[in-house]
Amino acid sequence: MKITPAFSKTLIAAACTAAVLSACGGGGGGGTAVVPPTADAPPALLGTSTVSGTLTGFGSIIVDGIRIDNHAVAAGREIEDGSMRPVELKLGQHVEVEHDGTLVASKIVVGSEVEGTITAVDVTAGTLTVLGQIVVINTDAALGPVTVFEAPYTRLADVKSGDGVEIHALLKTDAAGKVSLQATRVEKKIADEADRARGLVSELSLTAHTFRLGNLLVDYSGARLLPAGVALTNGAEVQVALPSATTAGSTAVKATVVKVKDRKGESQGKQVELGGAIAVLDVVAKTITVNGIKVDLSSASFNQSGRGLADLKAGSYVVIKGTYGSDSTLKATTVVIRGVDQDKGNEVELHGTTADFKASDDFKIRGVPVDASHATIDLASCLSAKLANDLQVSATGSLTASGKVILTSIKCEKAQDGQTVVEREGVTSRVETVAKTFTLTTSVEALAVQWSTATTFVDVDAATLAGKRVKVEGTVSAGVLRAEKIALKK
């Protein structure tokens, strides 16, 4: 997603040149998240509970099947100084969510695995190459989220060498230590952003000041290492910022920023949930490796009837809950195998308002295109005889490469004041930028809308809001629609 702040392109370029890790934004499909001035970095917390994985639904947000309340916080992409720039949430994105231990989010960070120029596409093998990283397209939900392509892409054949892309992915490592990325989301990247890559350090040379991320040889001699004073080690998880249009070759590319991820230090004994693909499985030792993290399963229980250690295999898509031990091993308490049992065919979960209804196979929920033509439909609690706009529903289904979800079930659910996310479309008037309010006139009513600093604006901002047709997502409390997202209707 293109980020267009209310500054000149010159200033955007200057900010990007300042070696931001997330390349001045990015994100989901087709919209332009309008960027306010960068906020101060939030204060460090004394250990936080986290959920790390792939966005698989909305209601508020759902990460690898885990439902998280995000009403009070906007998602963002992290800049090198720790500050955040807003981004629209989309299916297939990789997210890190900090929460209070009861799954009420305090921070949501969206981060891709690689952003850069495609140097090879192999449609037959189902792979593409970016910054020396081999990216595998996935069509099997048992191996992880199916790869979704953001328009104008609908499949791998649409992607061409020379395209700039942003790819969200599962990190996979085989028994020999070879790293690949299994894409969960592929989208076009704006040309003036810096490139970036995330992965595990290998072949570290403290003398030459180089290391490898996959096939990418990185020279960090002139890079800023974060956090300050950190020491690089083989196997460390890092995010690397690079000059735009970088390509991997036999010579090292010069990094501008290298940030080391310390998951154990950040959690400080708090519970974490980690979603990813099993890279290495040791049945005797009862350990697996997920996203480069060693996981001890010796005391873990499986949250699925009849499932156990024998059901795990390399490549299985799992969600682990546990805490980090003194040796940085994740001590698992529970394991869920995704893409099997009742989860099969129901990998995506959506809670929201039906919109843009044309037919049972062509409408949207939470901005996600869906097809309910073969779904089990229960509209009794809606008091509706058929599907239509403005029904409050919950739905499950499978994601296709084009981004459409083929629903297996859809049913009405009762809206709860201040909790249920609803969507309304209409024309704005009486915009008060100081009070952060406006009136939204829909086809059936006039609604009072309140926005806040946690509201995401897409293709519009407060200064240009008056008189526009927009879609507003949020919760209704005391008759006021409290906006979480305001998007220009195209």
Question: Could you explain the architecture of this structure?
Answer:
By secondary structure, the chain is mostly beta strands. It has 4 domains: 1-42 and 75-261, no CATH class; 266-342, Copper binding periplasmic protein CusF (OB fold (Dihydrolipoamide Acetyltransferase, E2P)); 348-412, OB fold (Dihydrolipoamide Acetyltransferase, E2P) (Beta Barrel); 421-488, Beta Barrel (OB fold (Dihydrolipoamide Acetyltransferase, E2P)). The chain has 2 helices and 41 strands. The strands form 5 sheets. The chain has a 19-stranded mixed β-sheet that branches. Strands 10-11-12-15-14 form a 5-stranded mixed beta barrel. Strands 36-37-38-41-40 form a 5-stranded mixed β-barrel. The protein is globular, with a radius of gyration of 22 Å. The chain starts with a strand and ends with a strand.
Write the layout of secondary structure elements.
Elements: E1 2-3, H1 9-17, E2 32-33, E3 49-58, E4 61-63, E5 66-68, E6 75-78, E7 84-86, E8 94-99, E9 105-110, E10 114-122, E11 127-130, E12 133-137, E13 148-149, E14 164-173, E15 179-188, E16 195-200, E17 202-205, E18 210-213, E19 216-219, E20 224-226, E21 237-242, E22 253-254, E23 257-261, H2 263-267, E24 272-282, E25 287-290, E26 293-296, E27 301-302, E28 317-324, E29 330-337, E30 348-359, E31 362-365, E32 368-371, E33 376-378, E34 392-399, E35 405-412, E36 421-432, E37 437-441, E38 446-450, E39 456-458, E40 469-477, E41 480-488
Parallel strand pairs: 1-2, 3-24, 3-30, 6-9, 12-15, 13-15, 19-22, 20-23, 26-29, 27-29, 32-35, 33-35, 38-41, 39-41
Antiparallel strand pairs: 3-4, 3-8, 4-5, 6-7, 8-9, 10-11, 10-14, 10-16, 11-12, 14-15, 16-21, 17-18, 18-19, 21-23, 24-25, 24-28, 25-26, 28-29, 30-31, 30-34, 31-32, 34-35, 36-37, 36-40, 37-38, 40-41
